[in-house]
Amino acid sequence: MSASPPHTQFNAAPILKYLGLPESYEPSPNSAPIEFLHRHARALPPHLLQLFSANTTPKQRTVVPAIRNRRLKYTQFNPTELSVSKAKATWPALWEGRERPGKEQAREEKEWAEKEFLGDGKQQVGKLGSLLGDYEEERESERVRTIRRQRAEHFESLPEEDEESDEEDEDTTSAPPELSPAETEEAFLRMLKEHFIYGFLEGIDYDKVDWDEHWDSDLDREAEERWFDDEEES
User: What is the rounded distance in angstroms from the CA atom of residue 212 to the CA atom of residue 191?
Assistant: First the structure.
């Protein structure tokens, strides 16, 4: 799930044995795992492909067509972790909407209190639910503010560009039109899909998709190529 491969020793022996290849085979799964996956990813079963989690990252694996195809197919099934409500909480810095963060977490906290806590004491539960909901909303808002503040501080620390060029840019560019809430969510979901496919999302389990041959079934390769062509043009 992390951006870097786990600190476990990679063992190429079972992979080479399965494919009937010598230890001297090039490209080597040890020193050139991405090139090796380019050639043999579709020929290996999941339990052997999983070994490559030790010496490759999700971002590196993006260039392997078989893996990229699996990620695209996965996103087409609208997984829960890439839904608007879940993704806003997981990657708040990517969300450009206007509403205060933490609304969804507050609602879930309040529902939990009302359904699971204090038995039949509905009056007390109602008060507790509201209290927990407000607390969760404020806690999530503070987390998002911290992330956005850190992001802003990072950009402020970058070297400043020439002021004259900045003024020229301001003169030649106009502000983009403001998006409606529905358009904002649509743009957010598309960005999430792009970030996932290209291995940029932190804290998500890429291994369960990259190494699962289930996502190869009935894949429309022409549609996949068109999708990536559209991405390059945009």
Answer: 23
The rounded radius of gyration (Å) of the Cα atoms in the chain is: 23
pLDDT for 63: 94
Q: Which residues of the chain have pLDDT under 50?
A: 1-4, 6-7, 118, 125, 219-220
Q: Tokens 């078989």 identify what position?
A: 66
**Closest CA relative to residue 114, chosen from 127, 103, 125:** 125
Q: What is the pTM of this model?
A: 0.63
Look over the chain and give the mean of its residue pLDDT values, rounded to a whole number.
76
Q: Which residues contact 192 (CB under 8 A, 6 or more apart)?
A: 82, 87, 91, 94, 201
Buried/exposed code over 168-196 (b: 16+ C-beta within 10 A; e: otherwise): eeeeeeeeeeeeeeeebeeebbebbbebb
Closest among 192, 188, 213 to 201, alpha carbons compared: 192
Distance CA 47, CA 215 (A): 15
Q: Is 52 exposed, middle or buried (0-12, 13-18, 19+ CB in 10 A)?
A: buried
Q: What is the pLDDT of residue 96?
A: 77
What tokens were used for 186?
């649509």
Q: What residue type is assigned to position 157 of the chain?
A: S
Question: What's the pLDDT at 135?
Answer: 57
DSSP H or E stretch at residue 99: none
**Start-to-end CA span in the chain (Å):** 29
